[in-house]
């Protein structure tokens, strides 16, 4: 046994173990798998909605109204304190909104599609001022009663209209309507010329805050209908993550054991190649900021099953070459050479399927296609570079001399 | 060694025994389309008190809403499938459940409009078509046309076996099923190509007088260990996902399990025999 090569050989194996352990299981609080991957909605809980935009009287669906609808939704999402939302236009008249990890996704969706048309109307139904005349809306608590309210400030034009009307109509009612629903119908006590008004009657500050956000963001120029909605509660998300990780670990361990039992020493090497492979895939996913979804995890583990295939092909070749009476080194050499083309042709077709899935699929399915594609490329790479190098190294260091341990 | 090619009629019969009932079932009862395709609402809810599905059905039906199925998925967890519910109806259902059956936590909610579902189906067919054509092209380019045809037939075999069994057992089909079918295609072809690759190699060093069927048979046996071992490793993972992976990926994993097993079978017992028959027919026509 040559000590130099042997040290290198075992050093490499230990290094892979350490890196693999670090990436997947982490050390203490440093957890790359959990901390640095983007978890999909199905794993951390969240909501995915597709809105269908429809025209309103005097406001057709076109690029301009869609753009302003999207920016109003963005304002609302941000002001609700939702972090990292995805808001996308799909096709000509659809909007996709994805919100992850928000405690009340149901409520959020409801707030997003509120038309938010605010109107102050005279008893005859004439609109005096509307949401367009607003400069600001902010929630507050009445210092004397402690009740939640929304304070409105009109812009110059609005303040003037509001002032004129209240001056001329003292003693009469002024109805406040939101989306056609009468909120309040107060009597005008005195002229209001400072351009300020308030709406009361909210059950808490949070509700007042939501209304204030709606009023600040303005009314939607288009009507939004829910075309598709997928909500995953945080409990189920966490449960799915835990279950799929457990299932993956068990499946992978089964592969490891099988490889060693069937292929002996090369199988042992292949197991390390697999750890390296999995680490590369995870690293690429983190670098690409790819989203890890439930089908994505399935795709990941599945690609490990397929990654073993490259190794299996090579080892079966290796066995054949050894049976022909070749020396270990030349058997490894020709085994790899002959198996490479096979591996390449076989993987190319799987890659075709994965790419098509990516372009035609949506959401979680895309996540699956991404992990599968990365997996296929990484598996070819590790099999023909790393496994090969390690086997040569092992042969040179004479750590395992008996061809029987290579399965021959 | 056992001659796979000479016994090929039995392999064809076994395949047909699974595929034909599947196709008949497809015509008679079709597939159990999930809401991804039909439109509708799925609510997965957790009750703290113990309830039975009949209670849930009664409460929801009283709201005037059509329930298509209620399924127990875990301790106190139920999957409720109904017609498409708008926000108001959905709220009414949750409220009624809370009033009648105690505290309810909504774990998951899917609502799909029928427009979206029709688009999904079109995309799925498109994907299947594009994938088949591209693979046929790739194999024709790397191997030869008849290899491509045989591989595509083996691939359709796996698709029909999977869809057929889903129809016979009326298992639900959702969008992840489409992803599974496409992965099966990629996987099945992968398996087939490894065998064709060996046939191609053996053809190059074919000895005079060696019959084509013997050559194919030899190639099949040379790759047999690989064919079985590869599918075994994938099956390990799939079974583990099926047993421990939770309800959300069950459809996907079940479809994959059937498809991958069928893929291994068709690669060994269908693809090469079909290629042999195609070759035989074409040389007969020439002479």
Automatic annotation (TrEMBL), chain B:
GO terms for biological process: intracellular protein transmembrane transport; protein targeting; protein transport by the Sec complex. It is found in: Cell membrane. It is a multi-pass membrane protein. Gene3D superfamilies: Multidrug efflux transporter AcrB transmembrane domain. GO terms for cellular component: plasma membrane. Residues 97-279 form the Protein export membrane protein SecD/SecF C-terminal domain. Keywords: Cell membrane, Membrane, Protein transport, Translocation, Transmembrane, Transmembrane helix, Transport. The chain crosses the membrane at residues 12-31, 120-139, 146-171, 177-196, 227-245, 251-276. GO terms for molecular function: protein-transporting ATPase activity. Its main location: membrane. Belongs to the SecD/SecF family. SecF subfamily. Part of the Sec protein translocase complex. Interacts with the SecYEG preprotein conducting channel. SecDF uses the proton motive force (PMF) to complete protein translocation after the ATP-dependent function of SecA. HAMAP family: SecF_B. Forms a complex with SecD. Part of the essential Sec protein translocation apparatus which comprises SecA, SecYEG and auxiliary proteins SecDF. Other proteins may also be involved. PANTHER family: PROTEIN TRANSLOCASE SUBUNIT SECF, PROTEIN-EXPORT MEMBRANE PROTEIN SEC. This is Protein-export membrane protein SecF.
């Amino acid at each position: 046994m040559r000590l130099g090569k042997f040290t290198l050989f075992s050093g490499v194996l230990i290094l892979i173990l350490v890196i693999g352990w670090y990436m997947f299981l982490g050390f203490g609080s440093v957890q790359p798998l959990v901390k640095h991957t983007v978890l999909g909605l199905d794993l951390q809980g969240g909501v995915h909605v597709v809105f269908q935009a429809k025209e309103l009287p005097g406001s057709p669906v076109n690029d301009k109204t869609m753009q302003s609808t999207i920016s109003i939704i963005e304002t609302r999402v941000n002001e609700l304190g939702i972090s990292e939302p995805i808001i996308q236009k799909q096709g000509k008249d659809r909007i996709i909104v994805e919100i992850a990890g928000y405690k009340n996704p149901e409520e959020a969706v409801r707030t997003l599609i509120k038309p938010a048309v605010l109107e102050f109307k005279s008893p005859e139904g004439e609109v005096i001022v509307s949401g367009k005349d607003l400069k600001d809306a902010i929630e507050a608590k009445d210092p004397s009663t402690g009740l939640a309210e929304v304070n409105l400030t009109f812009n110059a034009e609005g303040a003037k209209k509001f002032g004129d009307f209240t001056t001329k109509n003292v003693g009469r009612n002024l109805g406040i309507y939101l989306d056609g629903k009468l909120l309040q119908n107060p009597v005008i006590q005195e002229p209001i010329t400072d351009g300020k008004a308030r709406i009361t009657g909210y059950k808490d500050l949070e509700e007042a805050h939501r209304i204030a956000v709606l009023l600040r963001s303005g009314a939607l120029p288009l009507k939004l209908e829910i075309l598709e909605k997928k909500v995953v509660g945080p409990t189920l998300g966490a449960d799915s993550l835990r279950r799929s990780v457990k299932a993956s670990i068990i499946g992978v361990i089964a592969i490891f054991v099988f490889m060693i039992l069937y292929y002996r020493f090369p199988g042992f090497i292949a197991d390390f190649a697999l750890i390296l492979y999995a680490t590369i895939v995870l690293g690429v996913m983190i670098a690409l900021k790819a989203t890890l979804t439930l089908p994505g995890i399935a795709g990941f583990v599945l690609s490990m099953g397929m990654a073993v295939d490259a190794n299996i092909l090579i080892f079966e070749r290796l066995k054949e070459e050894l049976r022909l009476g070749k020396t270990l080194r030349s058997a490894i050499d020709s085994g790899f050479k002959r198996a490479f083309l096979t591996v390449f042709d076989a993987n190319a077709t799987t890659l075709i399927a994965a790419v098509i899935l990516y372009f035609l699929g949506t959401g979680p399915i895309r996540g699956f296609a991404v992990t599968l594609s990365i997996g296929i490329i990484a598996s070819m790479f590790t099999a023909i570079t790393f496994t090969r190098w390690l086997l040569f190294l092992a042969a040179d260091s004479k750590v395992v001399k008996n061809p029987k341990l290579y399965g021959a | 060694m056992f001659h796979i090619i000479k016994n090929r009629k039995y392999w064809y019969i076994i395949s047909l025994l699974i595929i034909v009932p599947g196709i008949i079932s497809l015509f008679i009862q079709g597939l159990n389309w999930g809401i991804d395709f039909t439109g509708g609402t799925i609510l997965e809810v957790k009750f703290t008190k113990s309830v039975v599905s009949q209670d849930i059905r009664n409460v929801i039906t009283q709201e005037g809403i059509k329930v298509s199925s209620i399924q127990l998925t875990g301790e106190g967890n139920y999957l409720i499938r109904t017609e498409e519910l708008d926000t108001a109806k959905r709220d009414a259902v949750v409220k009624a459940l809370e009033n009648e059956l105690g505290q309810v936590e909504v774990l998951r909610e899917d609502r799909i409009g029928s427009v979206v579902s029709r688009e999904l189906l079109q995309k799925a067919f498109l994907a299947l078509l594009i994938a088949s054509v591209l693979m046929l092209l790739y194999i024709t380019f790397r191997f030869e046309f008849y290899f491509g045809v045989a591989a595509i037939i083996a691939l359709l075999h796996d698709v029909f076996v999977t869809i057929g069994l889903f129809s016979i057992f009326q298992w639900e089909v959702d969008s992840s099923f489409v992803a599974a079918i496409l992965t099966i295609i990629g996987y099945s072809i992968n398996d087939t190509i490894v065998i064709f690759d060996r046939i191609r190699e053996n053809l190059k060093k074919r000895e005079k007088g060696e019959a084509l069927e013997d050559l194919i048979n030899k190639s099949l046996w040379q790759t047999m260990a690989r064919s079985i071992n590869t599918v075994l490793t994938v099956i390990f993972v799939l079974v583990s996902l099926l047993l421990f992976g939770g309800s959300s990926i069950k459809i996907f994993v079940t479809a994959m399990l059937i498809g991958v097993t069928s893929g291994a079978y068709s690669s060994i017992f269908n693809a090469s025999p079909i290629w042999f028959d195609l070759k035989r027919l074409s040389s007969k026509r020439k002479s």
